[in-house]
Amino acid sequence: MKKNFKILMMIVGIITVGFIAGCTGDYSLTYDTEWSYDAYTHFHMPTGHPDWYNEAKDRAEHSFEWRGTAATEESDCRTEYKCSVCGYVSESKPHIFEDVYGGYDEYYHWCRATCPHTTEVKDKSYHIYDEWISNNDGTKKRVCRICGYINIRETVATPEFSVAAGVVNSGTEVTISCATEGATIYYTTGGGEPTYRYTAAIRVTANVTIKAIAIKTGMDDSAVSSVSYEVPDTMVKITGWYSRVFYISNTELTYEKWYEVYQWAVKNGYVFANLGREGDSGTNGAAPSANSKQPVTCVSWRDAVVWCNAASEKAGLIPVYEYEGSVLKEAENYGSSGTNTANTTIVGSGNGKAEKATVRSYANGYRLPTEAEWEYAAKGGAEYKYSGSDNIDEVAWYSENSGHKTHDVGTKAANGYELHDMSGNVWEWCQDTWSGSSSSRVFRGGSECDNADYCAVSYRDGGNPYDQTHYIGFRVVCQF
Asked: Do the Cβ atoms of 56 and 32 come closer than 8 Å?
């Protein structure tokens, strides 16, 4: 009897252990790898004891934790699933996506899945990109953190201008182009953002900065490009002189323009021997007044060539005068007398840096006219005694009509080339040496305090390169 009881108790124990084991369910051991419902909400069919099936089914729709790995150069984008109920980890499988955006836009997006994970991908829609990375070839890319899709985006080419920056003749037409086909160009000439649609060439008639941007749908906007032009309102194109072309200012240099460049120049390493004067009776170096349109006076030949270099550099042109391999920036003075002196270097005639400077043949900046250029321009295409007329009162301020004072430039009639004051008002420094001298320099045209004969186109005179007086000024030429 006791023996039978012990056997019975062993059987009960075995059944009890089996029951407990069946209740706890070691779900991580023997499950099919196939989904029974779908890829996201599921159960895995148990392959162990048949009684475990019902318990697994009762705990159906187990939830996977979705885990993604971004695409790298070494591996594709993959996803991995671990069930939060049974602990089962699915086989790691790659997503396969179309190259076409779906959903919202190209930043919050999904790419349509063509793999079995369609439902999973849809639930994880509005994928998010990492930051843009430049490809250093005019394009950039970004990689989706979810699906690994690489988005390549091009940038519209930067607009280009048909005319290089610098000094241009009034009326110059500038076109804007973009190498990206189908791009729309916007521009501005007012200093703000480019907002005007470009449709035709821009005519430049005054100092201006043009900005432009190009835009095309599906591409990043171009960088903003800009170009600045200076239009000297006194420059006239002269042709036909020994088959050459040059530009010459149509008036003598005004004190207003002298002062503007002078102020910039002294802040940028230039040194002048004299401060310059507004007409015949202004205060040396004073700010321009109501008489600012009168010619600058009390400047030496040395001052004139140094000012030309400063004006060239300020305008973005190549300076003409060079001293010992560098741009000429200093106009030494002879002696230290008077309030016109900006420095006290004592340099005799012929020994100044300006006299020893060479002319750069390739430069496109401002310079003094040669005597031959000056006379050709002064004639204006005709053989008058004075520049533009045989009647001096029509074209010149001289001793008989000036009141022995200078006048605003351009107030007398022009010659045939639209040049004013080449007879009278003030004498004008030229590039050449005077009468074979190695040091003295030519000036031409006569002045407000001279009689008519001195104002004739053919009359010549000259002086020391350091001379400065209230009846000598200058005008400039250039070859753009």
From this structure: no
